[in-house]
Amino acid sequence: MKTIKHVDILIFTILLSILTSCNKDDYITKDDIQTSNGYIKGTLSGTTNDSTKINEEFNLEYSAPGANSFYPLYYSSDTVNFYTVNNHATYINNDYQFEIEINIYEIDNKVKITLFYLSLVKTLDDNKYLNLNLNNEEHLEITEFNYNTSSKRMTGKISGYFVYDRYYDNETEENKDNKFNINLEFDVKAWEIVNVED
Prior knowledge:
6-stranded mixed β-sheet
C-alpha cells in the first residue's frame, strides 16, 4: 500500500511540474492547426435589400489540407482536369468569417467555372450582422488560369457579378437586378488527387 501511495504522489508531482512549467504561449491556438496556402484576394461590392452598402476588400490565406486540389481524368485522347480553389479567413475571429470555393473544369485547354461559392459573415456598425451567401457562376469570367505541374500552384483571375435579388423600381417602373460585383485573383498550391483503378 505504501508503494502505491508513493507512485501516486510521484505521478501527481510530475503532472504538477509539467503544468506549472507551461507558459501561456505554449498552448495550441486555432491558427496553429490551420494551413497557410497562398491567397484568394480581391474586392466585393454591392447593396443588400435593406440598403446596406458592402465594400469589402479580402485576402483569404488559409485552407484545410487537401481543400485546394487538382484531379486529372483521361478519356481516350482527351484529358479532363478538375480543379478546386478553396481558401478562408482565419477562424480565430468570430466577428469575421469569409470563405470562397471555386470549381474549375478544363478540357482542350479551355477552362470554365462550374461552381463558385462565397460565404461572408461579418459584424457591422449600428448593431447589424451580415450573413451573405452567394452561389452562382453564371455571370463570372475566369482569365489567366494556369496550373504549374512543377510547383503544383494554381493561379488565375475572376471577375463579374452575382444577381443577389430582383426588385421593382418605382421610379422607372422596371424590374432591376440587385448585383454584387467581384474581382479577385488567386495563387494557391494544390494537392494532386491520384486516381487508382483496378
